[in-house]
């Protein structure tokens, strides 16, 4: 394993950790009524109570995805094919999320889209570090 792949792996881990921390923190701040409910979810929620349900579901999903991605990212060596494909799927999921953020509220366009770019790059770095090189 080259020195570059080790540093890319650490970068991927750091970016993935930062991404999920920011996503979870954002939803916690919405639930705590620090971030206005109409700044997230495309501004479609009718009240804090409606958005709290959505944010709670998003928190659960983010926690589950983080647990999986973190396990894959910290695994030494190559991972199983199903784990690699699942990681690709999760990355595509976040890319679709980025597109949705770009069509969302001002907060989503200028804050959440940056966070998603960090996450997409981090997930991609993890994928690259876990894919065996064709030698």
Question: Main traits of this protein?
Answer:
135 residues, mainly alpha, 0% strand, elongated
Task: Itemize the secondary structure elements and their pairings.
Blueprint: H1 3-31, H2 48-73, H3 81-102, H4 106-130
Helix pairs in contact: 1-2, 1-4, 3-4
Kindly describe this structure:
The protein is mainly alpha-helical and 135 residues long. It has one domain. It is built from four helices and no strands. Helix 1 packs antiparallel against helix 2. The N terminus is likely disordered.
Can you give me a brief rundown of this structure?
The chain has one domain (3-130). Helices cover 76% and strands 0% of the residues.
Radius of gyration: 16 Å
Tally of structural domains: 1
Give me the secondary-structure category: mainly alpha
State mean pLDDT (0 to 100 scale). Answer: 91
Summarize the main sheet: none
- Spans of at least 5 consecutive residues whose pLDDT stays below 50 are 1-6
The helix count comes to 4
Distance between the termini: 12 Å
What order do the helices and strands follow? HHHH
What is the number of beta strands?
0
Report the sheet-strand fraction.
under 5%
Proportion of residues in helical segments: over 70%
How would the global form be characterised?
A: elongated
């Amino acid at each position: 394993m080259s020195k570059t792949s080790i540093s890319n792996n650490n970068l991927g881990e750091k970016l993935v950790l930062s991404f999920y921390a920011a996503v979870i923190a954002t939803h916690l701040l919405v639930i705590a009524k620090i971030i206005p409910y109409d700044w997230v979810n495309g501004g479609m929620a009718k009240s804090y109570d409606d958005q709290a349900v959505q944010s709670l579901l998003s928190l659960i999903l983010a926690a589950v995805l983080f647990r999986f991605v973190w396990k894959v990212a910290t695994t030494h060596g190559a991972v199983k094919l199903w784990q690699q494909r699942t990681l690709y799927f999760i990355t595509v999921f976040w890319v679709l999320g980025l597109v949705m953020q770009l069509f969302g509220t001002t907060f989503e366009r200028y804050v959440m889209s940056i966070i998603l770019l960090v996450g997409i790059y981090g997930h991609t770095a993890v994928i690259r570090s876990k894919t065996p090189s064709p030698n």
